[in-house]
């Protein structure tokens, strides 16, 4: 976990008159150490290895705080559960999601970003944030005919 993440979270909690408890610190550390995308249940399992007293409710409440503090992004990839990923130190990117196996592939494309900005400018729309998700089949799951 970066000291920066802990400082950002501590400052955010102070604004809300909350403290960085040992349980919140454990959840923060595990979330910041997680690779890629993770669900709340996965995070709960990781946290309980370190502190068995951490409850599901504490994980969900802390995830909401981490989102509000802009340390995590929440994504809905259409599988009936939300997943999270670090936003601190992780540049903007978009996602391809395989509808068969659930694999998530990240990509960056400056042309797409420019096109979105141009379209917004045409209608005098100010983009605050966005999430581009493209659903289909990964290389391993694609039907034979399309290979």
CATH architecture of the largest domain, by name, is Orthogonal Bundle
Which quaternary structure do these chains form?
A: single chain
For the record, the CATH class of the largest domain is: Mainly Alpha
CATH topology of the largest domain: Arc Repressor Mutant, subunit A
Give the topology string: H per helix, E per strand.
HHEHHEEEEHE
Number of helices: 5
**Coarse shape:** globular
| Number of E-type strands | 6
- Amino- and carboxy-terminal Cα gap: 41 Å
What does the radius of gyration come to? 18 Å
Sheet-strand content, in percent, reads 15-25%
- The neighbouring-strand order within the major sheet is 1-3-2
Helix content: 40-55%
Describe the structure.
42% of the residues lie in helices and 17% in strands. It is built from 5 helices and 6 strands; from the N terminus they run ααβααββββαβ. It folds into 2 domains: 3-86, Arc Repressor Mutant, subunit A; 94-146, Dna Ligase, domain 1. Helix 2 (22-33) packs across helix 3 (40-50), helix 2 crosses helix 4 (56-68) and helix 3 (40-50) crosses helix 4 (56-68). The protein is α+β, with helices and mostly antiparallel strands. The strands form 2 sheets. The chain has a 3-stranded antiparallel beta sheet with strand order 1-3-2. Strands 5-4-6 form a 3-stranded mixed beta sheet, with no helix packed on it. The protein has helices spanning 3-15, 22-33, 40-50, 56-68, 110-122; strands spanning 38-39, 72-76, 82-86, 94-98, 104-107, 133-136.
Give a summary of the structure in a few sentences.
By secondary structure, this protein is of the alpha+beta class. 42% of the residues lie in helices and 17% in strands. The chain folds into 2 domains: 3-86, Winged helix-like DNA-binding domain superfamily/Winged helix DNA-binding domain (Arc Repressor Mutant, subunit A), CATH 1.10.10.10; 94-146, 2-Layer Sandwich (Dna Ligase, domain 1), CATH 3.30.1490.
């Amino acid at each position: 976990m970066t000291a920066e993440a802990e400082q950002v979270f501590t400052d955010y909690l102070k604004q809300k008159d909350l403290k960085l408890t040992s349980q919140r610190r454990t959840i923060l550390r595990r979330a910041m150490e997680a690779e890629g995308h993770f669900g709340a249940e996965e995070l709960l399992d990781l946290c309980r290895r370190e502190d068995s007293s951490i409850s599901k409710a504490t994980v969900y409440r802390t995830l909401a705080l981490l989102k509000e503090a802009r340390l995590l992004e929440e994504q809905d990839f259409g599988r009936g559960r939300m997943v999270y990923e670090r936003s601190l130190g992780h540049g903007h990117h978009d996602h391809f999601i395989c509808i068969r196996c659930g694999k998530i592939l990240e990509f960056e494309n400056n042309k797409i970003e420019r096109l979105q900005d141009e379209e917004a400018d045409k209608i005098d729309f100010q983009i605050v944030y966005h999430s581009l998700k493209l659903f289909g089949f990964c290389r391993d799951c694609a039907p034979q005919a399309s290979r």
